[in-house]
Specification:
By secondary structure, the chain is an alpha+beta fold. The protein has 4 helices and 5 strands, in the order H-H-E-E-E-H-E-E-H. The model has no long low-confidence stretch (mean pLDDT 86).
Length: 174
C-alpha cells in the first residue's frame, strides 16, 4: 500500500566498517560472523539495560551518555482555542484502519487526493500522557561541533521501547 522512503539520516558507518578497522588493528582477527554476533550481543545487552532497567550507557572517550528520557505530553491550544495538531504525532496504524472503513470503495492509491481526511493522534493515555524518548546527554561531550551530531536508535529499539512503555510502567529520567 504505502512504501517507506530512504531515510533522512543515513549512516555511513556500520558493522562492516567496524570489522575492517578491527582486522586492520589486530594480528589474529576473529571470523566475521563471530565478530558480528559478539558485536550485536554487546549492543543488545546495553539497549535492554537502558530500556528495561532505566539504565544509562556512558559511551566513554568524553562522548556523553545515552538514556531514555520521560517528558510530560502537553496539549497546546491555538489562537482559536482548538488543540494545536502540529505538535501531535499521528497514530498511523489506527488512522489507516479508519480510512479503510471510510474509503472502502476508493483505491488506496487515490487517498492522497482526498482533502481533510480524519487523522487519529497519539495522546499516550496508557502512560498518563508521558512521552518516552531516546536522549543523548551531551553535557560531558567534548566533540567539536557536537550539535551537528544526532543519536537515532534503530526501528527495532524504538518499537521495543514503545512495547515496554505500553506493557509495564518503567519510570525513566526526567
Amino acid at each position: 500500500m504505502f512504501k517507506r522512503t530512504k531515510g533522512k539520516y543515513n549512516s555511513l558507518i556500520g558493522i562492516d566498517q567496524y570489522y575492517a578497522f578491527y582486522t586492520a588493528t589486530v594480528s589474529d582477527p576473529l571470523p566475521k560472523q563471530l565478530f558480528r554476533s559478539i558485536f550485536r550481543g554487546y549492543i543488545e545487552q546495553i539497549m535492554v539495560n537502558v530500556i528495561y532497567n532505566s539504565g544509562e550507557f556512558s559511551m566513554g572517550q568524553k562522548l556523553g551518555s545515552v538514556r531514555v528520557r520521560e517528558k510530560d505530553y502537553k496539549l497546546v491550544l491555538d489562537s482559536d482555542g482548538n488543540i494545536d495538531k502540529t505538535r501531535l504525532v499521528p497514530d498511523w496504524g489506527k488512522t489507516l484502519k479508519k480510512w479503510k472503513k471510510i474509503y472502502a470503495d476508493i483505491p488506496s492509491s487515490e487517498w492522497k487526493n482526498i482533502e481533510d481526511k480524519p487523522i487519529i493522534y497519539l495522546l499516550n493515555e496508557h502512560s498518563d500522557s508521558t512521552l518516552k524518548q531516546w536522549f543523548w546527554d551531551k553535557t560531558t561531550c567534548n566533540i567539536y561541533k557536537q550539535s551537528l551530531y544526532k543519536f537515532d536508535a534503530t526501528r527495532y529499539w524504538d518499537r521495543l521501547l514503545c512495547k515496554v512503555n505500553k506493557e509495564s510502567n518503567v519510570s525513566y529520567y526526567r
